[in-house]
Amino acid sequence: MTTLSAPPMPSFTHRASRWISRNLIRIYAGVAFVYLFIPVAYTFAFSFNDSGKSNLVWQGFTLDNWKNPCGAPQVCSAVANSIQIGVLSTVIATILGTMIAFALGRHKFRGRTSTNLLIFLPMATPEVVLGASLLAMFLNLGVNPGFWTIVISHVMFCISFVVVTVKARIASLDPRLEQAAMDLYANEKDTFRYVTLPLVMPGIAGAALLAFSLSFDDFIITNFNSGIETTFPKFVYVSAARGIPAEANVIGSAMFFIALFIVVIGQVVARQRKKS
Amino acid sequence: MAFLHGATRTHSGPRSGIKSRSITPYLLLAPGMIWLITFFIIPIFSLASTSTMVRPEGAQIGTYVQELRFQNYVDAFVANQEQYVRSFVYAGIATLLALAIAFPLAYTIAFKAGKYRNVLLVLVVAPFFTSFLLRTVAWTQILGDDGPIVSTLKLLPFFDDSLRLTATPFAVVSGLTYNFLPFMTLPLYASLERIDPRTLEAAGDLYANGFTTFKKVTVPLAMPGIVAGTLLTFIPAAGDYINATLLGNPSTKMIGNVIESRFFAVVDYPTAAALSFTLMATILIVVTLYIRKSGTDELV
Q1: Position A154 pLDDT exceeds 70
Q2: To probe the interface with A, which of B36, B52, B176 has the most A CB atoms within 10 Å?
Q3: Contact B46 A133 (CB under 8 A)
Q4: Does A127 lie at the interface with B, CB-CB under 8 angstroms?
Q5: Is B92 found in the same domain as B222?
Q6: Which of A27, A121, B207, B252 has the most crowded Cβ, counting Cβ within 10 A?
């Protein structure tokens, strides 16, 4: 949009200002996206920094960090811990949460209001309170915090998110599909197995992904209930003062691309299913 | 397992989506509810009990006995009211800023994105996939004294060499705004997306200008999303201490910082517990009043 490409000068400013006012909201959204991605881009860029010990200033391009992401001490053991905790918490929270979601979405029962309240409260409580209260209980019981107390705490705060996600999916199902199955003489068990469950599956998968990312990324609750156990966020927090090693940037960037890949694949699969 | 009872009465059950009263829902609820009661409700009572404990004279650090000393609450509040008030002010400003940034963003995705809608939605969530802490650390370096922004601003004549962006309230509030932006955008999008664009056209046909349409049609219809988004931003922001630690200085400490250091650095469990309890109670009161006032009860 230089002056060279716009020979009829008088109308150019006019046209430009009209274009801007018409697309103002899109421009604003564009700026918001840039804002969202600045630290992501920064993290990615500095994963290629030939930094030595401290990754605070740019010192030159290298692929070494990507070739050997376990190069910095403790990075990989922290990541391995986070993955183990994430997988365990996700499996438990997804099973328990999905069961609750089916109870709420498919059954009448007494105590629905208090159930809903018990699901809502952990989401409305700041993490620092969740973490502090659980630690207070462990201390009162004389339990030493470590790997399993982290898993317990992660399952606790993930359940609510699983329930909400799966419940939304159940609520959006067309009840006529299940009625049709029963009209075709499928019993309730088969209707559930061959109709309801496959239809709810994308919701369960989404909930599991959400639970894993919440668990993998959690710091505050983990910090309270981890004792001397390290997780990836805890590792980043502890090393933040000295400047985190570039290998941590590699892990963060890799997580970003892996997750993006999973989401894109999920979208493509969903679209193809719709077509067929 | 949902249909164990269905095996006996194969085809006689009700045909609607909702099953009649039986023991099944309780079996489905039990494991998850037991988990939540054991690791959420009981700990809250444990916290309440810790909050009135006292350290006996001459006892070892970290040893406390129950004396039902409610004065702990007064002491804790008086000693930390500055950080307490600051938490709510910072969280409030960050929530308003996030709303101002997220509303046009969600509006664009809902009404102007066309076939790119899903792509843009993925992009809103995508920054989540890089660790929350890594992104905050990245901000400390971007805004840092040797970072690109400060060095550029220093070239301008209006700023002298003492200019700093990190270790300021500005940095802490921007960090909070940034970190919880997707929590604001997604519920806003969810409620804007449900609006039939024809209602907006109808407002225009009835001679409402852009601003009036926005105020009288769009905002009221988006209200559930606004309420959900502001709560999802305000609650975690009020309890956060990572942004204040990494982007702030000692005079920007929030209540989360105090609770954390009372627990770990000072080993003063009763004060930490009293502060946590007060924080939770205040937030629940604010949330209840806010939901009442905005007239939306559907949250879960």
Answers
A1: yes
A2: B36
A3: yes
A4: yes
A5: yes
A6: B252
Q: Is residue A130 part of a domain?
A: yes
Kindly indicate whether the ipTM for this predicted assembly is greater than 0.95, answering yes or no. no
Q: Does A262 touch chain B (CB under 8 A)?
A: no
**Residue A155: which of A227, A226, A88 has the closest Cα?**
A88
Query: Could you list the residue range(s) of the whole structural domain that residue A165 is in?
Result: 75-244
Are the beta carbons of B50 and A140 separated by less than 8 Å?
Answer: yes
pLDDT surpasses 70 at A261: yes
Report A:200-229 residues touching B (Cβ under 8 A): 213, 216-217, 219-220, 223-224
Q: Which of A33, A39, A260 sits opposite B139 (nearest CB)?
A: A39
Per the CB < 8 Å rule, is A32 touching B104? Answer: yes
Residue in chain A lying closest to B275 (CA): A129
Q: Is residue B171 part of a domain?
A: yes
Residue A49 lies in a domain: no
Residue A124 pLDDT: 86
Residue-wise pLDDT for B56-86, tens only, equals: 887 777 778 888 888 889 999 999 999 999 9
Closest alpha carbon within chain A to B143: A39
Domain holding B4, by residue range, is 1-51
- pLDDT score of A102: 93
In terms of domains, do B153 and B255 share one?
yes
Is pLDDT above 80 for B287?
yes
Helix, strand or coil for residue B249?
coil
Look up the pTM and report it: 0.85
Which residue of chain A is at minimal alpha-carbon distance from B37?
A118
* Tens-place pLDDT, residues A212-250: 989 999 999 999 999 899 999 999 998 887 778 888 899
Domain count, chain B: 2
Secondary structure in 3-state letters for chain A: CCHHHCCCHHHHHHHHHHHHHHCHHHHHHHHHHHHHHHHHHHHHHHHHECCCCCCCCCCCECCHHHHCCCCCCCHHHHHHHHHHHHHHHHHHHHHHHHHHHHHHHHECCCCHHHHHHHHHHHHHCCHHHHHHHHHHHHHHHCCCCCHHHHHHHHHHHHHHHHHHHHHHHHHCCCHHHHHHHHHCCCCHHHHHHHHHHHHHHHHHHHHHHHHHHHHHHCCHHHHHHCCCCCCHHHHHHHHCCCCCCHHHHHHHHHHHHHHHHHHHHHHHHHHHHHHC
Q: What is the DSSP letter of A241?
A: T
Which among A32, A96, A191 is the nearest to B31, CB-wise?
A: A96
Which pLDDT score is estimated for B97?
96
CATH number of residue B153's parent domain: 1.10.3720.10
Q: Which residues of A touch B124 (CB under 8 A)?
A: 36
- Asked whether the predicted pLDDT for residue B3 surpasses 70, the reply is no
Name the residue facing A32 among B42, B101, B139 (closest C-beta).
Answer: B101
pLDDT tens by residue, A166-212: 998 898 888 888 888 888 888 888 888 888 888 899 899 989 988 99
When CB atoms are compared, the residue of A43, A120, A185 closest to B11 is: A185
Residue of A nearest to B270 (CA): A136
Mutate to test the interface with B, among A129, A160, A218 (most CBs of B within 10 A): A129
| Nearest residue on chain B to A177, alpha-carbon basis | B17
